[in-house]
Amino acid sequence: MKIAYFGTPEFAVPILETLISKDNIEIVAVITQPDKKFGRKQETISPAVKISAQKFNLPVFQPENSQELNKITKNLKVDFFVVVAFGMIFNQETLNIPKYGCINIHPSLLPKYRGASPLHEAILHGDQETGVSIMEMSAKMDAGPLYICQRLKINESDDINTLTIKTSLLASQLLPETLSDIMEGYLTSVPQSKTNISYCKKIKKEDGEIHKNKSAKEIINMYRAYKEWPEIYTIQNDKKIKLLEIEISDYQDQAGTLVKHGKELFLGTKTKSIKINKIQPEGKNPMDAQSFINGNQALFK
């Protein structure tokens, strides 16, 4: 079985490496996003999938745009394109290239949470389960017919990091057999339901801001969803303050206000207050709550 693999972030790495480990699978090309510059020093960072592929001496392509992507794909002679959080749109001509089709992995129970941030959305909504969908790609985003949907429980202790790992490992377990079954004609796709369709957006930096109308539970869910990026923050005296470690308390204080009870720091919400254990004021290093209180006594008068 010959496969061209399309993927970019860490989520796509375990799936790629599982395919590489299979004796009946040959990865003929890995296509990923271009390297990008990050931070004040503008350091060049390669996609996680590129780093993984290079460990196995696989040919890596990094198209800058759809025209370059089309040039790469039109010459590929493969059974499948496997697409996992790649980040570029395929036209119908590209979808028609592989012998058995383009297979996409999406970490939600489609048609729920089509789009860029399904795991974040599940956590934000306080969902108790998510899942992995393996589908036949179509020209419309995340709307192709489904080969398989597997459910996965979300624990209250899960955050975006743990849930990313869990769904990636589940997809890794499901994909090899799914591909074989498609090739051998044992598995056919079925159209997605036309009801209960929902979408999720691309996350922006400002999504991490805590507003006064949020409950304690909603803020905890934001913390779990945005732990990696953009992180959650409150605005106090026109300064951004990141909340790095938090939990729900039994106190109730004015929504949006930082308060102290003894030596402990809290943020009031419309329900119970949030206890802050670790905090990072704008332009400063992370610190514990006591250090913040000691250095900002004027806030609490």
Q: What does this 3D model show about the protein?
A:
The protein is α/β, with parallel strands linked by helices and 301 residues long. It folds into 2 domains: 2-199, Rossmann fold (3-Layer(aba) Sandwich), CATH 3.40.50; 205-300, Formyl transferase, C-terminal domain (Methionyl-tRNA Fmet Formyltransferase, Chain A, domain 2, Roll), CATH 3.10.25. It contains 8 helices and 17 strands. The chain has helices at 13-21, 48-55, 66-73, 92-95, 118-124, 160-183, 216-225, 289-295; strands at 2-7, 26-31, 36-38, 43-45, 60-61, 80-84, 102-106, 114-115, 129-136, 146-153, 199-200, 233-236, 239-248, 258-261, 264-267, 274-281, 287-288. Helix 1 (13-21) packs parallel to helix 6 (160-183) and helix 5 packs antiparallel against helix 7 (216-225). It starts with a strand and ends in a 6-residue tail after the last helix. 36% of the residues are buried. The mean pLDDT is 95.
Topology overview:
Blueprint: E1 2-7, H1 13-21, E2 26-31, E3 36-38, E4 43-45, H2 48-55, E5 60-61, H3 66-73, E6 80-84, H4 92-95, E7 102-106, E8 114-115, H5 118-124, E9 129-136, E10 146-153, H6 160-183, E11 199-200, H7 216-225, E12 233-236, E13 239-248, E14 258-261, E15 264-267, E16 274-281, E17 287-288, H8 289-295
Parallel strand pairs: 1-2, 1-6, 2-5, 6-7, 8-11
Antiparallel strand pairs: 3-4, 7-9, 9-10, 12-13, 13-16, 14-15, 15-16, 16-17
Helix pairs in contact: 1-6, 5-7
Number of domains: 2
Structural class: alpha/beta
Strand sequence of the main sheet, in spatial order? 5-2-1-6-7-9-10
Strand portion: 25-35%
Q: Give start-end ranges of low-pLDDT stretches.
A: none
CATH superfamily of the largest domain: Formyl transferase, N-terminal domain
- Total DSSP E strands: 17
- The gyration radius over C-alpha positions equals 22 Å
The profile of the biggest β sheet is: 7 strands, mixed
Helix content: 25-40%
The name of the CATH topology of the largest domain is: Rossmann fold
Overall, the morphology is elongated
**Spatial separation of the terminal alpha carbons:** 69 Å
Mean pLDDT: 95
Number of helices: 8
Name of the CATH class of the largest domain: Alpha Beta
Order of helices and strands: EHEEEHEHEHEEHEEHEHEEEEEEH
